[in-house]
Fold this protein.
Amino acid sequence: MRLLLVEDDRMIGESLRSALRLAGHAVDWVRDASAAHATLGSERFDLVLLDLGLPPGSGPSTTPPLRDGLDVLRALRARRDATPVIVLTARDARGDKVAGLDAGADDYLVKPFELDELNARIRAVSRRHSGRAETTLAHAGVVLDPATRQVTRDGEPVLLSAREFAVLEALMARPGALLSRAQLEDRLYGWGEEIESNAVSVYIHQLRRKLGADFIRNVRGVGYCVGTVPADPA
Amino acid sequence: MTSIRVRLLLSLLAMLALAAALIGAVTYRSVLAETEVLFDYQLRQMALTLRDQGEIAPDQVGTLTDEQLDFVVQIWTVDGRIMYASRRHPELPARALLGFADVKAGPQVWRTFSVATRDKVIQVAQPVQIRQRLAANAALRSVAPLLAIAPLMALGIWWLAARALAPLQRVAAGVRQRDEQSLAALPTGGLPDEVAPLVQALNALLQRLGASLDAQRAFVADAAHELRSPLTALKLQLQLLLRAPDDMARGAAVEALAAGIDRAARLVEQLLTLARNEPGAPPIALESVDLSELVREALADARAYAASRDSALAFDGGPGCVVRGERSALTALVRNLIDNAVRYSPRESRIDVNVCREGSKVVLRVDDPGPGIPLEDRGRVFDRFYRRSASDEDGTGLGLAIVRSVADRHGAALALEKAPAGGLRVTLRFDAATADQATVVAAAAAHPPSHVAGARADAT
């Protein structure tokens, strides 16, 4: 998944970014409210991890002004942007939690927290966001479990690399939906990470080899999908 | 005996007793004096009547011999033979002193009046005791009403004291109801003038306590909140270390964890320094401190950090810069100023630290070539945990708060200005120590031979 991490503390930000990458996510990290606002306005993310105590930053002034993470969240929801948001904050008062959730947060996690819990909440929120009740993704005999990061084909375990898993997860999250090469690259690489040329093609090739040649379809010039290709790919 | 009621009651009873005794004594004396005159007159008239009469009439004999009568009449011939005695009184001497006389006869004292004619001596005598008894009775009668109303007055005082002290009881009950959480002021309405100042003083104390408690609570809440960030970082760094897939990642995680621990330790240390210097902290033990010397030592400690940023620390310390203060607090102040200057200046900067005497003041200046602090932020930068931006530097947000607390406790004026080099200039003005306080330090400083007052030291 492609995540936006909004966190002003350098150490927490660095550690979280490393941990989330380790969990197979592409992570972009901004450190103040106006940068978060600008990034969310221009790019799409699968999920946002939002700290509340943020410096305003030096971006262009907005109305209302962005004083902290809560303002960023309100502005996001005011734009009718439904990107799932998990608030990560040291503010543990009940009033803060209520305010955070009412401002449009999908979940609220108080610092300090366990990485396991954060990962589980990320999975839960993205599950709810895509309207799934079941915890695994399944299609044509292939079952992907985001929690254990295991994939089986007809009950037999399939070994995948982290990046292969990320590509497969993105494709299986919405069977039938076409994802372009750029969209897949977004899910694989955060800002500043060097994108290996032709990487997506390589991962698709590997996945087809392990899961069956026709498991992932390719619509030339448009992208890839799992399941039935839409009638009119254009 | 600490009860006001009991004390009032006993005082009243004592005063009543004293008044009764006084009144009794005065009445006794005056009645005694009056009866003296009256009875003496009577004695004299009786004696003179007997003399003029010549002999005692028979009807008088009965009266005179009446046992009830206090008077005793004796008549002698000139040669001392008794001619007549109304009653036999062996104690009474068989001679008479002419005129009035007090005669002791047996257990009794008699008042006598004697008169002489050519052939006989007439004496009329009366026991003095009679007069005393009369006076005592009169005194008792005059005191009696006082003694009768004493219990009533005691009851009255008891009740009045209870009424007068009721507001105190109410105040006590009000104070008792308050716990450490509710420091609301006590009501002052309807209190007597004597109790109101006590309650007002109590309220003022409650208010000060409340403010101090609020400050403490805010400090603890702030501290707890701020400790969360380094703890969150530590927790993440540790989990990252546990999940590290290879040696390279593990090495990086260990490094990050060490940095996280350093940061948490520094925050705790800064918090403690601030707590020690917050208003309300125990008073400082003043000593004479040579600020030039202290800054020189602090600069020596800061050199490693400055060197890590390729920055230079320049120092100019003048002589006679002795102030009264607490050495460790002043060291914390100077360290934080230098640390801030290095931290928020670009790499390869030159930080100028200057200590000099200006009249009765010792002035410490720290100039840096950093971005400075805009005018509108200068009031807030002294707030604890206030950080101006998410810069890459891991400041604790406590440096300037510590500087201000220490400056306040030392009565030093603190000012932020634009430095000539464009960055921030922090100026602190301390009161210079008086001459005799300063000599103590000079004598102490004379021992280490390395000390040269006014030396100029540049360090890189």
